[in-house]
Amino acid sequence: MPESKSVWGIEIGQAGLKALKLRYAEAAHQVVAVGFDYIPHAKILSQPDAIPDELIAEAITKFLSRNKVQDDIVAIGLPAQSSLARFIQLPPVEAGKVKEIVKYEAKQQIPFPLEDVIWDYQQMGGGEEAGGFVIDSEVGIFATKRDQVMHQLHPFQSNKVEIELMQIAPVALYSFLAYDRLSIRPDGEGAPVDEEHTAVLDMGSDQSTIMVTDGAKIWIRNIPIGGNHFTRALTKEMKLTFAKAEHLKCNATKSPDPKAVFQALKPVFNDYLSEVQRSLGYFSSVSQGAEIKKVIGCGNGFRMAGLQKFLEQNLELPVERAEEFKQLAGTSVLEAQLFKENIMSFTVAYGLAIQAMGLSRMGTNLLPPEIARAREIRRKKPWAAITAATLLTGLALSTIGTANAWRVVHSEPWDKALKTSGDLQSKWGGYQSSYSTATGRYDSAKSVGKTLVEGMKDTIWLEFYKSVNECMPRDIGQALDEDNIEYRNRVLIKSITAEKSDDLAAWFEGINTNYKALSDEVAEDRGLKPQPAPEGEGYIFTLNGEHYHHIPDKPETDQGINYLLDRVIPNLQTWTFKQEDGDRVDVRKMGITNPVVLYAKQEVVDLAQRASNARKDPRFNVVNPTNRPQGDFNEPMPDAFSADPSMEEFGYDNGQPQPGRRNMEFREVHRTQFQIQFVWKPIPEEERLEEDPLKVATEESENSETTTETEATVE
Prior knowledge:
By secondary structure, this protein is an alpha+beta fold. A hairpin with a 4-residue loop joins β12 (197-203) and β13.
């Protein structure tokens, strides 16, 4: 049942505080907007001379001076850039063990210790329960660092405002879209339509967020371009102050020279379009070709003149502005001029309030559990006191009655108890004797086993080759059915050699500086410090091989040497590595370091493949062959067999293939021959460190995507 109290949804963004107050009218089964507030900051929080904490505290103080929230439920949003969202497909698992499996996955997906983050999870759409097992279920894991959550809570706690719900902004956008546009309700009403996906594009001040959903599952991605990027372009091209540029951006059509304004903004428009196209394209690729039917734009940045039409023309999709809330009533709010001017910036606040009212399918909450637990205990204290008093009264009455009954000594029950105790002691003595005998047998077997394995060779070399093998790219799942060799994620290792060296520093010094710089760039792109030069003695391994991977529209990551720098070198640089279908293995943790591409040459070659119309019946008749040797398989093998005349059909003459008779076809492919070297200084398992010393700790490492284009030709 929806919450009957009034609910405030509050979002504090870079530009200001947006708050929307909703109440559920049970008689009309309608959500009513009963209040709102919009408080812009004196300065954008990201401006160099701004002090964010002071501006946020000032906005909250002003909000509380104009609105009463003591008896209302309050939900606040967490910025997308400081949060993490991961979606995983669970293996078949018992329904009672889902939480345990999700916790294990959270440790793998969240790049911080779980005690340093606030996280929650929810089973998304799909999946079914059969025989007590949950099958094909997708789970969303949402997290943010604990110190950031406490920082967001501090100004509210300072003003004695109790927060009931903390949610990341992209999930609040889902609640807005599902309730207001898709008419999806928690009770199952308004079930999502298969294959129809809608994208919400929320443009903030410094970045934008894309949330794509079909009503059941969601997909989230951040774009590092926001409204301020357009403002800065005007300050640079038209020599304006930030304030004047912001005003000109919002009123471009009314300026004396609109053409000059749009010309100055054109590069940022193109960059923004490129990021949106790349994000939607990536969504389609990971969602097995799912199509997006519509894009809904929100955030005050989306009010920019020409942006909607520009995106609609270039994306070839309908693009709408969130200029009305279709499922809300309450004309006093919806018709207010200030609300109408800024309605597109209230979508997150709307979604927060909808979830807090219990009208969203999302149930995750990033409020610190110790705060929620303490608040729940405080609310239940009066009832606990009444219950305790009732129990004490009953206990007192029961004690009085029992005392009256036992004023006289009763010996019979004690005699029976003493006999039971003696029997139990005898039974315990028998168990202890059996245990001692079993312990002696175990110690003897352990001694024999130790003698058998003592002095056996270490298995670290087997572990090493397994780690190297796991670091090589491979096709997984449906990718195994790929017919085009240039789209396969495979490399062919023709040889792997090891050379023992007493001076690894001399080997590393002799490598071309440009080669080493490429490996350092790869490490930095993955959030690692460049690996230091090796020292002392160890092994120098050389991998010689080739690959045919070549995707035409991805030269930066999927062609030639760039494929090696994107799929092989990063894996050899990781602390530990895990393929999607494999075990996690130690890499740099066991001493593998300094991988370098020494040679990579790409060329176009002809590749022979069997023609698609090749015969599918058996090549040889194994049921009744004409060339079976006489006798049985225990007799000596004859020197030769007579030729089967039927083999001439396949282009064989006396067992040898005849030129031009095989059913083959040729095609041109891109082959890259390469050589990679790296160092291995074996580290025994008991001496390995747990933490990666080269890892760079960044708060946004999981939420920002940096594209580094490296053009290098290694001959």
